[in-house]
Amino acid sequence: MKSFAHNKHVITANKALLAEFGSGLLRSAKENNVAFGFEAAVCGGVPIISGLSKSLVANEIKSILGIVNGTSNYILTIMEKEGISMKEALKIAQKKGYAERDPYLDLGGVDSAHKLAILVSLAFGFYPKFSDIYYEGITSISNLDIKYALELGYRIKLLAVAKRSAGNSVEARVHPTLLPLDHILSSVRGVYNAVHVEGSLVGKLLFHGKGAGKNPTASAVISDLVNISEHLSRKDSISRVFCDSGMKRLINIDEISSRYYVRFMAVDRPGVLANVSGILGRHNISIASVTQKERGRARSVPIVMMTHEANEMNMKKAMAKIQKLKAIAKKPIWIRVEG
Q1: Quick one: angle between helices 70-82 and 143-151, nearest 10?
Q2: 275, exposed or middle or buried, with CB in 10 Å at 0-12, 13-18, 19+?
Q3: Average pLDDT along the chain, 339 residues, taken 10 residues at a time
Q4: Pairing label, strands 249-250, 169-180
Q5: What is the assigned CATH class of domain 256-337?
Q6: What is the CATH number of domain 61-210?
Q7: Class of domain 2-55+213-241
Q8: What's the mean per-residue pLDDT of the chain?
Q9: CB-count exposure of residue 156 (10 Å: 0-12, 13-18, 19+)
Q10: What is the residue extent of each domain of the chain?
Q11: Active site residues
C-alpha cells in the first residue's frame, strides 16, 4: 500500500498476499494509477493471468478446472508410475527439489487454494474471502486409490474447481478429484500445471506449462515489466482492471452435488455390504457400481463404490454413520468426480 501511495509500480509472485488482500491492493493501485503485476503468482510461466484479464475479457467464464500445484501433481504421478506410497514419493520429490522440507502448503491444498482465489477474482469479478474457500489436500490418498481409480477409468488429480452457479454465486473448491482418463487434464503429468477454462464465446481452452522454477517465473515477471513499460510509453492508465460482476456469494461445499468414489476397508463377513448400502440409501445416495477387492486371508478387505450424483452434506452424514459400523476397519476414503 505504501508503495502505491508513493506512486511506485509493484510486481509480485506472492499468491498468499493476493489471496488474502488482493481486492484492497487492486483498489489501491487503481486509485493511485500505478501498475500491479502478478502474472507469476499463478502457474509460473503459463500466461493464465493475462489470459483471463485481457484475452478472454469478452467472455462470460463458465468454469475453471486447474492443476495448479506442481508438487502434488508430481507426487501423484510418481505414486502411479512406481506403485509407491505417498511417503516414498514425497522423499523423491524432496530429493529432486520439487517439494519443500515442510510440504504442508502444497500437499494440504493451501497453495492451490491461494491460486484459485486469484483466478476466481479475474474470471468471475468476485474476490472471495479466502477462509471461505474449501480446500482439501492429497495426504489421505493411497496407492490403492490410484490403482482402483485407474481400473475404473479415472486418474486422481489435486484439482482447483471454480464454476458459475445460479443466483449470482460461484463454486470455489480444491480437493482430490477423479478425472476420466480421456479428460485433457488427466494427461498433465509431473511438475506441469494446466488450467482448463470454458468461456461463453471461445468454448474450452487449455493453458499448460511449467508452473514453477526460476525460468518460468522470470518469464512471467518480465512480461509484467514489459507491460508496464508499454503503458508508461503511451502515458495511459496502467492499473490492472478489476470488474465487480455483482456476484453475491461463494457456495458452501455442503451445497454442491457430485458423483463420488468411495473406498471402505471392511471386515470380510456377510451383511456388511447390505448395511453400508442401507445407510447410503437412507441418505438419498444411489450406488452406480460396487466391487469387493482382494478377498482372501486379510482381516479387512477393500470395498470400492462409485455413486451417482449426490448432495455433499448427505454424503458427509452417510460417511460418518458408516465409519461407526463395527465392520468398518478404517475411516472411509471418498473422492469427488468431475468430467
Answers
A1: 70
A2: middle
A3: 88 95 90 91 95 94 97 98 97 95 97 98 92 97 97 98 93 98 98 97 97 89 91 63 68 97 92 95 98 73 96 98 95 96
A4: parallel
A5: alpha beta
A6: 3.30.360.10
A7: alpha beta
A8: 93
A9: buried
A10: 2-55+213-241, 61-210, 256-337
A11: 115
